[in-house]
């Protein structure tokens, strides 16, 4: 595949890391789908709002060249 052909990438999580990955991929012309629990706007990316603990993601992952998982671990420790 040549550098000029765009690919589909999925970024799970739209925090500091996920949004940066998504923005960079979109800037180079790739198709980017961002999956997160809350709505996010990242230039050039399509957002899919899903709850990762409850919702299936098969339809979102279909055809993706890679999936980047950039979510924080759930924790409830008291400090």
- CA-based shape: globular
Largest sheet, spatial ordering of strands: 3-2-1-4
Largest sheet: 4 strands, parallel
Q: How many strand elements?
A: 4
Helix fraction, binned, reads 10-25%
> Poorly predicted ranges (pLDDT <50, ≥5 residues)?
none
Radius of gyration: 13 Å
What is the mean predicted local confidence, pLDDT?
Answer: 91
- Distance, first to last CA: 50 Å
Query: What string, H for helix and E for strand, traces the elements in order?
Result: EHEEHE
Q: How much β-strand is present in the residues?
A: 25-35%
Determine the number of helices (DSSP H or I, runs of at least 4 residues). 2
Structure write-up:
The structure is a single chain. By secondary structure, the protein is of the alpha/beta class. Helices cover 20% and strands 25% of the residues. The protein is built from 2 helices and 4 strands, in the order E-H-E-E-H-E. The chain has helices at residues 16-27, 58-61, and strands spanning 8-12, 31-36, 45-49, 66-69. Strands 3-2-1-4 form a 4-stranded parallel β-sheet, covered by helices on one side. The longest helix has 12 residues, at 16-27. It is globular.
Summarize the structure.
The protein is of the alpha/beta class and 79 residues long. The protein is built from 2 helices and 4 strands; from the N terminus they run βαββαβ.
């Amino acid at each position: 595949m040549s550098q000029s052909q765009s690919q589909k990438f999925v970024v799970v999580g739209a925090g500091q890391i996920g949004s940066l990955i998504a923005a960079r991929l979109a800037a180079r012309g790739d198709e980017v789908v961002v999956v997160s629990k809350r709505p996010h706007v990242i230039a050039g990316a399509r957002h899919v709002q899903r709850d990762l603990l409850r919702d299936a993601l098969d339809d979102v992952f279909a055809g993706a060249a890679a999936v980047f998982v950039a979510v924080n671990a759930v924790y409830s420790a008291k400090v």
